[in-house]
Every structure is written in structure tokens, then in C-alpha cells.
């Protein structure tokens, strides 16, 4: 008979906190999934890898036999690949202390080294090897990350777009753009599923048209990020100029440019967490806009009695200008391949895309309709300007909106500008001049001056281009029509080899996208400021 005193007690795992309740859909998993998605946003299309600059490589990455994925107890959200003895030298390269750019841009495997990937949780690229945080986001987490990617400040111009295009054509354009971009996002996921060696939008572009075509796509991404940064700077200055008019707009633009310069030295993992404030501010702005509409009984600014609206376009140039405004809210396609690779069950990607676009469309259409009903033909290029310029609202509305408009750029700009900064510093070799001493990184003078010059360029552009609506329309026309409509259709024909009817339809949509890009860009460039 066994002595009870000698029995080994059975240790039962305990939940560490309420954050773990819910398993893979717990708050803790949502937090890690959100952090990874922000890492993709901060390193997306311009960089050769989607690794977070601060991602640590587990120490035992090179201590096991070849070809096995190890699940580390302390890194449940990270899949790693163990290397054979012959690959220890490469593994040692990976295990160097992470710098801000080295994990992103340095090649760990020479060209020609290939490793088998699982279609859903690939953790090693064909030419660049890293421990990728992949394959752990559930469908709800992917929907959350997708919606967070799509919903941005471009929605603030949608009431103005409805005014330009007219009530009827405007809603048709907004709905059709949502449907088309949802389909093209699903197409990108399908390409990644069938060709798992392609990891990013840039990889797909290079496989389609070669390195020069990929370079052209990278140039478009650069314009997109630079334009997004510029729109945030303009929005910040416009908001504070309305509330604190004793300082001119250039002063506020210089302030936000200085903040961007300082935050450019903050690690990406910290920035991804602070960007959560941007989500809170976005939701708060939406709630405040609707609340303002319910505060007044008569127009302008009331939902209870709407302002005068137009059912049809103001004129042809105005209609062309609205095209870019409607497309600008769907510009998240460079991130969707990364979100696909990060899914626990990639087979659910199409469903999550549809759900994400339905949620985003509901929010965007709601803001467009609410803002248009409140101000009608007097809508400005940002609904924030209309609300802040309406003295009939309570005195606390403008300061509160000003706080939200101050936090939004501060939370988003460092992530948006990080890929641009990383790429040009790597191109000029500035990242090699850093020194690591003790526990901290000491940036070289050249690198500091380069970032200062970039922020100076951002400030200069904000002085030259002062219209928020003009910048957003240009982004939607020149960038989103191309990246989110035309190119995915061409990729679909090239990689999928569909039947002739589908091929003709894809070419037609692609041509329509290019026409929209040209017409919309012309309208945004010639728009009077």
C-alpha cells in the first residue's frame, strides 16, 4: 500500500490573472495580437521583413535537431525554428542583441537557402530567417486588427465627399469601393495561401513584375506613408488653431514635428502599446460627433433637423475629387498579407475580411451620413472643422475635441513614419554607426541629424500643402486606387489564371482603378486650397 506521505502532489496550472480567461480569445491574447499587428504597421511594406525591431530570439533557437518547431513555455505567442549543427553560425547571427533596424533589414540566410513552411504558421522566410510572431491570432483578433488598420482619420472627410459627389452617387461610390476592396483583400490572402513563399505585398509585387516593379510599388508605399503623416500634421494644426488661435498654424506644425522627432527614438514595442490611445480617441471622436448632432434642434449641426443637402454632384471636378476621398478609407492592403500569416486558422481569412469590412463600412457610412445631415452643403474637408467652428455647442466640446485631435497624431505618427526612417537610414548606412553601451543604445550624430532632417521635411511639406481634404484625396486617388484595386486584380490574373470571363472582369476593374487614380489625382492636385 502506498504511503500517503510519500505521494507526489499534482500541480495544477493556475491562471495568472483574469486577462487569461477565455483561452485563445482572452484579453491577454488580444493584447499580444494587437501588438503584433502594430508591429506590421510600423514595418510593413517598405522593409524586407515584418519582424518587430525589438523582437527577441529565444536563446535555445540553435540547440535542437533540424527541422522541428519548438514551442517555448515563455513565448507561447511565438513559433520558432530550430537549426542543425551546421547552421549554428547563422543562428548565432540571429541571436545578436536586437537593434532598431538589424532584424528588419539584414539577411540571415543567403539567397538560395530554403526551408519548408507550414501554410498557416510559417516562421522562416525563404531568404530572411527570423523567429516570426506568426500563426496565433484567432478570427476575432484578426477582425479587430483589420478594423483598426482600416479605420482612420480619412473618415473625417467622408461628409465632405458626400457633399461633393451628392447623396445618391456618393453612397453608391462608398458601398462599391468597400465591396471591391474587400474582394481584393481576400485575393491577396488567397495568393499567400497558394504561394506560401510570398510573405508580404512587396513579395507579391516582385514575383509579378520583378525587382523594378517592386521598387515602383515601394515608391507608392513611401508616398502613402508620407501623405498619411502629412495629413496627421495638418489635422493637428487645424484643430489647435481653432481652439487656440493666438498662435499661427505653422507653430503647431512645428510642435508636432518636434514630437515626432523625439518619439522616433522610442522602441517599436512601446509605440505599439501607446497607439492603443489612438483607438480610444477615434471611438471617442465618433461618439462626440453623434452627440453634438443630438444637442441642437435646428441646423447647422443638428441631427434632429438636418441641413440642406444635395442629391447629385456639385460639378464634375468636385465629383472627381470625391473619388479619392471615398477610396482613402480602404487603404490597408499592404498589411493584409501579414494579418493572414498571423492567423491561427488561415482558412477563416475570407470570412474575417468580410466581417472587418462590414464593421468598417458601418462606421464610415455612419460618419458620412451623420456629418452630411448635420452640415449638408456647408461641409468642410474635415467634419472636425465644422463642429469646432459652431459656437452653438457647449463650451467643453472644442477643448475635448482638441485633446482627441492632439492624441491621435501623437499616437499614430511615430508608427507611420518608422518604415520611412528605417529604410533611408539603412540605405545610407546610418544604422551601422550606432554604438551599444551598457543597457542603452547611443545614436550616432549622423543618425540624429538624419531624423531631424526628415521631420524638417515633414514640417516643410505641411507648410506647402495646407488642405487636409486635398492630401486625403490625393492619397485615395494616386495610392489606394492603385494598391487596393488595380494591382490586386492584376495579381489575381497572373497567379490564379482564372477563366476568361473572370480574367476580363479583373482587367476591367483594374482599368477602372487606373482611370480613377488618374482622374482623382488630377482633381486633388488642381483643387483650390
From TrEMBL:
Q: Which residues are listed as membrane-spanning?
A: 147-165, 171-192, 212-237, 249-268, 275-296, 316-336, 357-376, 396-415, 448-468, 474-495, 504-525
Question: Which residue stretches belong to region Disordered?
Answer: 104-124
Record's keyword terms, sorted? Amino-acid transport, Membrane, Transmembrane, Transmembrane helix, Transport
Q: Does the keyword Calcium apply?
A: no
Name of the featured protein:
Amino acid transporter transmembrane domain-containing protein
The protein's location, in the record's own words, is:
Membrane
Q: What PANTHER family does the database record attribute to this sequence? A: AMINO ACID TRANSPORTER (PTHR22950), TRANSMEMBRANE AMINO ACID TRANSPORTER FAMILY PROTEIN (PTHR22950:SF692)
Tell me which Pfam families the record gives: Aa_trans
Return the GO cellular component terms, semicolon-separated.
vacuolar membrane
Q: Which family does it belong to?
A: Belongs to the amino acid/polyamine transporter 2 family.
Domain named Amino acid transporter transmembrane is located at 136-525
Listed GO MF terms? L-amino acid transmembrane transporter activity
In the bilayer, the protein is annotated as: Multi-pass membrane protein
Amino acid at each position: 500500500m502506498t504511503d500517503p506521505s510519500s505521494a507526489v502532489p499534482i500541480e495544477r496550472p493556475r491562471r495568472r490573472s483574469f486577462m487569461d480567461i477565455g483561452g485563445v480569445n482572452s484579453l491577454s491574447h488580444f493584447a499580444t495580437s494587437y501588438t503584433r499587428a502594430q508591429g506590421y504597421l510600423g514595418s510593413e511594406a517598405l522593409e524586407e521583413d515584418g519582424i518587430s525591431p525589438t523582437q527577441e530570439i529565444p536563446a535555445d533557437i540553435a540547440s535542437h535537431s533540424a527541422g522541428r518547431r519548438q514551442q517555448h513555455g515563455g513565448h507561447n505567442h511565438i513559433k520558432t525554428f530550430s537549426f542543425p549543427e551546421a547552421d549554428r553560425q547563422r543562428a548565432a547571427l540571429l541571436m545578436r542583441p536586437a537593434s532598431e533596424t538589424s532584424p528588419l533589414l539584414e539577411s540571415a540566410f543567403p539567397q538560395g537557402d530554403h526551408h519548408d513552411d507550414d501554410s498557416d504558421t510559417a516562421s522562416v522566410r525563404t531568404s530572411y530567417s527570423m523567429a516570426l510572431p506568426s500563426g496565433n491570432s484567432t478570427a476575432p483578433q484578426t477582425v479587430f486588427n483589420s478594423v483598426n488598420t482600416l479605420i482612420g482619420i480619412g473618415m473625417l472627410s467622408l461628409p465632405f465627399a458626400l457633399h461633393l459627389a451628392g447623396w445618391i452617387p456618393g453612397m453608391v461610390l462608398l458601398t462599391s469601393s468597400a465591396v471591391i476592396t474587400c474582394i481584393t483583400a481576400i485575393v491577396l490572402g488567397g495568393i499567400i495561401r497558394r504561394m506560401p513563399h510570398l510573405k508580404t505585398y512587396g513579395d507579391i509585387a516582385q514575383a509579378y513584375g520583378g525587382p523594378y516593379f517592386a521598387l515602383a510599388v515601394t515608391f507608392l508605399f513611401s508616398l502613402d506613408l508620407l501623405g498619411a503623416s502629412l495629413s496627421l500634421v495638418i489635422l493637428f494644426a487645424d484643430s489647435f488653431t481653432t481652439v487656440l488661435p493666438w498662435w499661427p498654424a505653422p507653430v503647431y506644425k512645428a510642435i508636432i514635428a518636434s514630437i515626432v522627432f523625439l518619439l522616433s527614438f522610442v522602441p517599436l514595442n512601446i509605440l505599439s502599446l501607446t497607439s492603443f490611445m489612438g483607438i480610444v480617441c477615434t471611438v471617442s471622436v465618433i461618439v462626440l460627433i453623434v452627440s453634438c448632432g443630438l444637442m441642437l434642434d435646428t441646423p447647422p449641426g443638428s441631427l434632429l433637423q438636418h441641413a440642406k443637402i444635395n442629391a447629385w454632384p456639385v460639378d464634375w471636378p468636385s465629383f472627381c475629387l470625391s473619388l479619392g476621398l471615398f477610396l482613402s478609407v480602404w487603404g490597408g492592403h499592404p498589411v493584409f498579407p501579414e494579418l493572414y500569416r498571423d492567423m491561427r486558422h488561415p482558412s477563416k481569412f475570407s470570412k474575417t475580411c468580410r466581417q472587418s469590412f462590414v464593421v468598417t463600412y458601418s462606421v464610415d457610412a455612419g460618419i458620412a451620413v451623420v456629418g452630411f445631415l448635420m452640415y449638408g452643403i456647408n461641409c468642410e474637408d474635415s467634419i472636425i472643422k465644422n463642429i469646432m467652428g459652431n459656437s452653438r455647442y457647449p463650451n467643453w466640446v472644442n477643448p475635448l475635441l482638441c485633446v482627441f485631435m492632439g492624441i491621435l497624431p501623437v499616437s499614430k505618427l511615430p508608427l507611420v513614419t518608422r518604415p520611412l526612417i528605417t529604410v533611408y537610414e539603412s540605405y545610407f548606412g546610418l544604422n551601422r554607426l550606432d554604438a551599444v553601451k551598457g543597457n542603452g543604445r547611443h545614436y550616432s550624430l549622423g543618425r540624429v541629424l538624419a531624423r531631424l532632417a526628415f521631420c524638417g521635411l515633414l514640417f516643410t511639406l505641411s507648410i506647402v500643402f495646407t488642405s487636409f481634404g486635398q492630401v486625403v484625396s490625393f492619397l485615395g486617388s494616386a495610392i489606394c486606387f492603385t494598391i487596393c484595386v488595380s494591382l490586386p486584380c492584376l495579381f489575381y490574373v497572373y497567379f490564379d489564371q482564372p477563366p476568361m470571363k473572370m480574367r476580363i472582369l479583373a482587367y476591367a476593374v483594374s482599368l477602372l482603378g487606373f482611370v480613377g487614380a488618374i482622374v482623382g489625382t488630377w482633381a486633388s492636385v488642381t483643387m483650390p486650397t
